[in-house]
Design brief:
Chain A is an alpha+beta fold. Helix content of chain A is 19%, strand content 35%. Chain A is built from 8 helices and 19 strands. Chain B is an alpha+beta fold. Chain B has one domain: OB fold (Dihydrolipoamide Acetyltransferase, E2P) (Beta Barrel), CATH 2.40.50.100. The chains are: A alpha+beta, B alpha+beta. The interface between A and B is medium-sized, with 16 and 12 residues.
Chain lengths: 365, 128
């Protein structure tokens, strides 16, 4: 199958990206001059620029737009203000996840949803299936390029070429119609790295100009970053990834995303199942762990306790900033507490690890 | 990408340097480049006996897990233990850092391996 290319494809060639097939998209896993580790540190210490144009976007409009989104997602969007963003899982009636997404509220009759690339078609079909009168839905994914500028120096770099005071855009807020190097953008203070930063949506034909303008404005402080470091950064900051911590067969409560599941809402898809699970207590829960013997835990590795299977690793690897081999595992609830000695089965051999809390990266305030 | 003339090379991008009946085994510049940042090395045990093509260890980069094979049969006489603490030296100096040393049981196997020139052509083909 022909791989899809984002509007920034020419930039990946120009900056010598190591291109891979990422869920049907031809995207850089890393840039040849840097590599994943250097790119990871670049974002934690300075700033990095990502192409995330493969992400899907859906426009929801109409008198009932708010009611529709409220029914679709587990978080409560009724208190969301104009130009505010919120994160939410979107569930099936059994409580499993269709996807996790960001809801942008433009106005009471216009919401903008940002969804995972690989789930775009599935999500859009799901939304259409549950559409109510007074709502129009449009898959606008091909109408936007999305860039992410992340890291402690992101704000300063962007501010130098931007017509809006970025201090006015707080964490999980956005503003449309901002000019960056003269290019019209929607900017939100969001990201997937555990650092401060912004995500910028713009027209595909302006994407390369915007990319170049940001690299030029941040010369010496910003570098292009590939998907490899995007994953190590999100993992090290313990941010969930659909298909790993969340999935069709994993509920947001099992993934310990309780604060995004508002069972006090009158109704939403999956509420009954999730309310039952909350009451009983989930049989499995996500837990952090650190390797205490030599070995790198990887997604799907089996987790054992005293020789018995208790679950699997959802994400794992070397955490570059912390310099530790860490993992997240979905295990039987009785073992999902700090201080448990567990075994990760690496190449058919048990390797010791210990569960914990607060093992992951938190940006210094 | 660097390829040394005086080494033997395998299809799996391992190199062999011969000193008497000892074979020093490592991974090529091509291999380290394709793996990316190496963060973990699992070494074989000294005294272990292996046939050509057997897995003798594992190399893990940030993004990938790769088996390390021996291109020749023999018994492990030494390993490069420093790699356990500093796996990233495989990225910096792939030909200067052997992974293990084998006492060869069948040196004729070397004839099946590639020369530097052949390996250069092999890598060029793999890149196409």
């Amino acid at each position: 199958m022909e791989l899809r290319r984002t509007p920034l494809y020419p930039m990946h060639l120009k900056y010598d990206g190591n291109m891979i097939d990422f869920g049907g998209w031809e995207l850089p896993v890393e840039y040849k001059a840097t590599g994943i580790l250097a790119e990871h540190h670049q974002v934690r210490r300075k700033a990095g620029l990502f192409d995330v144009s493969h992400m899907g976007e859906v426009d929801i409009r109409g008198e009932q737009a708010g009611a529709f989104v409220q029914e679709l997602v587990t978080n409560d969007i009724s208190t969301l203000k104009e130009n505010q963003v919120c994160y939410s899982p979107m569930c099936y009636p059994d409580g499993g996840c269709v996807d996790d997404l960001l809801v942008y509220k433009h106005s009471r009759d216009h919401y903008f949803l940002v969804i995972n690339a690989a789930n775009t078609d599935k999500d859009f079909a799901w939304m259409q299936e549950h559409k109510i009168p007074g709502v129009t839905l449009e898959n606008v994914s091909s109408r936007y390029a999305e860039l992410a500028l992340q890291g402690p120096l992101a704000e300063g770099i962007l501010q130098s070429i931007c017509d809006t005071d970025l201090k006015e855009i707080n964490y999980y807020w956005f503003r449309p119609g901002v000019k960056v190097a003269g290019i019209d953008c929607l900017i939100s203070r969001t990201g997937y790295t555990g650092e401060d930063g912004f995500e910028l949506f713009t027209s595909p034909d302006k994407a390369c100009d915007l990319w170049e303008a940001i690299l030029e404005a941040g010369k010496g402080a910003v570098l292009p970053i590939g998907l490899g470091a995007r994953d190590t950064l999100r993992f090290e900051a313990k941010m969930p990834l659909y298909g790993h911590e969340l999935d069709k067969g994993i509920t947001p409560l099992e993934a310990r995303l309780d604060r995004f599941v508002r069972l006090d809402k009158p109704s939403f898809i999956g509420k009954e199942a999730l309310a039952r699970q909350k009451e009983k207590g989930p049989e499995r829960l996500l837990v952090e762990f650190e390797m205490t013997e030599r070995g790198i835990p990887r997604a799907h590795y089996e987790v054992q306790k005293n020789g018995q299977n208790i679950g699997w690793v959802t994400s794992g690897g070397y955490a570059p900033t912390l310099g530790k081999n860490l993992g997240l595992a979905l295990v039987k609830s009785e073992f999902a507490k700090p201080g448990e000695e567990i075994d990760i089965i690496i190449r058919n051999k048990p390797v010791k690890a210990r569960t914990g809390q607060g093992l992951f990266y938190r940006r210094p305030k | 990408m660097e390829i040394k003339a005086n080494l033997y090379y395998s299809d799996d991008h391992e190199w062999v340097r011969v000193e008497g009946d000892l074979a020093y085994i490592g991974i090529t510049d091509y291999a380290q480049h394709h793996l990316g940042d190496i963060v973990f090395v699992e070494l074989p045990e000294i005294g272990g006996e292996f046939a050509a093509g057997d897995t003798i260890g594992v190399i893990e980069s940030v993004k990938a897990v790769a088996d390390m094979h021996t291109p020749v049969s023999g018994t492990i006489t030494a390993v490069n233990e420093a790699l356990e603490e500093a796996p990233e030296t495989l990225n910096k100096d792939p030909y200067g850092q052997h992974i293990a040393v084998l006492k060869m049981s069948n040196p004729d196997e070397l004839k099946k391996l590639m020369t530097g020139e052949q390996y250069t052509a092999y890598c060029e083909q793999a890149e196409e």
